[in-house]
Amino acid sequence: MGEKSSSFITLLITAMILSGAANTIVYKLQNTSKVSVDGWTATNFNHPFMQAVTMFLGESLCILLFLNIKKKPDYKQGCIEAAAKGLKTKVNYGWVAIPAMCDLTASTLAYISLNYIPPSIYQMLRGGAIISTAIMSTCFLKRHIKRYQWFGCFFVLVGITLVGMSSFLFPPKKDNNDDSDTKSEVGAAYFISVGLLLLSVVMNGLQFVSEEKLFDVYYLHPFEIVGIEGLWGFSVYVVLAIALTFIQCPTSMEGSCIQKRMTDMFYFERADFYFLQIFASGLLLFWVILGIFTIATFNICGVSVTKYVSSLARSLVDVSRTLIIWAVSLAITWIDPEAKWENTRWEAIVLELIGFFVLVTGNLIYNGTIKLKFLDEGSQVDPLNDAAQQFLDSKNIQSLQPQ
């Protein structure tokens, strides 16, 4: 396999940003859908576990694309070149279960949190993956993180803290004629959701680094690893979703669980009700199918960035889709106030915007675009040892080699 050109990397990054933004928006559209089944009162579509099943289904379909690619001469030639470089061409798929389980945990936590926090905050907080990835890279890949990069991580931490506090300090008003705050209502559910999302970010960091470690050892095509991860996750989640369909929620959690029709019992998941709802609404079915497509595209692009650039570059790029998600979410909220996707209080928007710029500044410091003399500027230029910096430096982008 030859060198990856600047135009190929640019196309890869663009596809990752657009598919990632579309995926977050599509899943939020699912979560805000209300569907009536068999004449019953319309209820919210609240199925984080079944959403994870569809996500892994989308990923697993990539294995079909890989089986087609595997027959082509280019792939066979790539195997020969990889073997010459010391990479193993016989893959132990048991190791792929590690990033798959990280993805499974992270996705579940993220889907649950997306039910209770605005999409923009959801996406900005996911920018904290650069911190967890940096820490994991140090521990497992033995990558040396320089002082200015840790300083950038500190800025990212400050940024996500400001973003996370925006809707708590300035909660949305109950309606246009009510100036009272809903801070007490926002508090518990909001902070629990933020906590779950931050935990998912930690798992994302472990997932990215474990994938990069696999690329260091094995010759893996992006479609191959995404497809195998999907099969692992789908296999586990089918069993889990069925089991949760029969496990009742504690009384204290009934507000977040699903009521079984014609009973007073609540369950963590209702797989049967999930299918009844999506087939009762053509639009919701469309959102589900689109979600499968966008998550598959996003994961293929993300794994490709990890393969051809680095796991850190993947974390950096992931931040870029935030503005698209924020703009669309605000537009939906202003067009349809009943949607309530975003907190439209100007104080919250300003604080969130400040937090976003601090977060972006942290990313720019981390990758060396913003150079800080007091942290030894000379040490900030080390393109041979920092794949993320190679990606962001157009002069060196041609030197990127697939592993």
From TrEMBL:
GO-annotated molecular function: pyrimidine nucleotide-sugar transmembrane transporter activity
Pfam name, any one: Nuc_sug_transp
Keyword terms of this UniProt record: Membrane, Transmembrane, Transmembrane helix
Annotated TM spans: 48-67, 93-114, 120-141, 148-170, 190-209, 230-253, 273-298, 319-336, 348-366
Localisation: Membrane
GO CC terms, sorted: Golgi membrane
Family matches, as InterPro entries: Nuc_sug_transpt
Membrane topology: Multi-pass membrane protein
UniProt-recorded name of the protein: EamA domain-containing protein
Species for this entry: Paramecium pentaurelia
